[in-house]
Amino acid sequence: MSQQRRTFLKAVGLAGLGATLDISLGLARPKTPARLSKEVSVATLSGKVHAGGQGLAGVAVTDGATVTLTDSKGQYELESSGATEFVYISVPRGYEFPQEQGVARIYRRKEPVRGRFKADFELRKLSQDDTQHNFLVWADPQMISKADAAEFKATAVPDTQKLIASYPAGTLFHGIGCGDLVWDHFELFEDYQQGVAATGIPFFQVIGNHDMDLTARTDEGSANTFRQLFGPTYYSFNRGEIHYVVLDDVFFIGAAKKYIGYLTEQQLAWLEQDLSHVKSGSTVVVSLHIPPYTRQHLRNKEKEESMGGSVANRRELYRLLKPFKAHIMSGHTHFNETLVTEENVIEHVHGTICGAWWTGPICTDGTPGGYGVYEVRGGELKWYYKAIGQERTHQFRMYPKGSLPERPEAVVVNVWNWDSAWKVTWFEDGVSRGSMEQYTGLDPLSVQLHAGPALPAKHKWVDPTLTEHLFVANVSGQPREIRVEVTDRFGQVYSDTLST
Prior knowledge:
Elements: H1 3-11, E1 21-22, E2 27-30, E3 40-51, E4 54-55, E5 60-62, E6 67-69, E7 75-81, E8 86-89, E9 99-100, E10 103-104, E11 107-109, E12 116-118, E13 121-122, E14 132-138, H2 146-154, H3 156-165, E15 173-177, H4 189-199, E16 203-205, H5 224-230, E17 235-239, E18 242-246, E19 250-252, E20 259-261, H6 265-275, E21 283-287, H7 296-299, H8 314-321, E22 325-330, E23 337-342, E24 345-349, E25 370-377, E26 380-387, E27 397-399, E28 410-414, E29 423-428, E30 431-435, E31 437-441, H9 444-450, E32 467-474, E33 481-487, E34 493-499
Parallel strand pairs: 3-12, 3-13, 14-15, 15-16, 18-21, 21-22, 22-24
Antiparallel strand pairs: 1-2, 2-3, 3-4, 3-7, 5-6, 5-8, 8-11, 9-10, 14-25, 17-18, 19-20, 23-24, 25-26, 27-28, 28-32, 29-30, 29-33, 31-32, 33-34
Helix pairs in contact: 2-4, 3-4, 6-8
């Protein structure tokens, strides 16, 4: 038995059987003990990563368990367990993303022949520098019917097309579908893919809880359909100076629609290897479906976080990201929240493409249906939230005095992409009144659309949710005009006026 194979068997937990295994053909066959009843497949994966026939050195190749780098000729070889389904690459900076009708294809499905499988990856060099590029995050298209799919194609898709066209020709864009691409109806994946293709940019997909096979007996089988359509559920790629990672943090517990937010050991072990090849201090963007953390349980005055609403073992994710500047992209909640959870980590919980499940124009916290847009310059990110059907300057909504029953003297502002580095100030008849008071409450429009007799006929269980991105100010007398100025963390000022 070669030293390489001994190392591999140790990695997959079979080291103790080393003397009993005959793996001359890449198959682990039990001799003793007799209790090992199934074959343990060990395949040698090999191939070349190249562009125009020229081998590319230092490209990360993985089977989802082991990560290796191509040699100076672009060649790789690794020993792979039969428990993994794909061999795939982390596309290096400076190269196009392989795609099929907009869906990124960075993988090959393993089909070992007599214990070996060869997979070459051909890349095309970009015609421009990718140090500057943009990406957008679609969270929760979550279509349950053809009517939802038609609305998706009539709203989110053309809005995205218009947004991309508003940038100079040739601007590099890619998209991330941040989970719940459909709502348990897998025939609608075709509609999602059609929408992706129509945007004209490559999209990388994240698995959500509504993208899982609900009849699976364990988590391992819950992603079968997703993997058939989109490939591995966790992987990485590079563009410019940014290293992008996609993870699967929806752990199915074997009962229909029951899951927890959790990252498996296999993923964490893979991530540790993947990040070992990334320069310390670099910017890493991680996309997953369930937010590692939100403050929802605090707003709701609950003693514990929801097991399905945050990631139970997020501390290990934070530990692995500690050497880097990190941004974490998520969806799932149908509200918008931006949090600085660690010194080096900003978490972006996105409002949804579908709003409140296609019942109207807003999410349950008052955030417009929409998506996140990120502009990358070197290792730095700038971002804004793009409301569907609105200009990019639409970053908050004003409500007149009396809109909050518990604060009848206050004007109200909902600044959905607010974080602690933003400023919200107000003026009465041109006179500055200073900062508005941050307030936790229900968005008045969400109450109007989602509560009481106005419950959506489509989904009567939709309710308004508490948010911390409301701001209030008591109005004195009868001013003719109230103006609000909102300054984001990048110094961009947005303003709007309310006549009283």
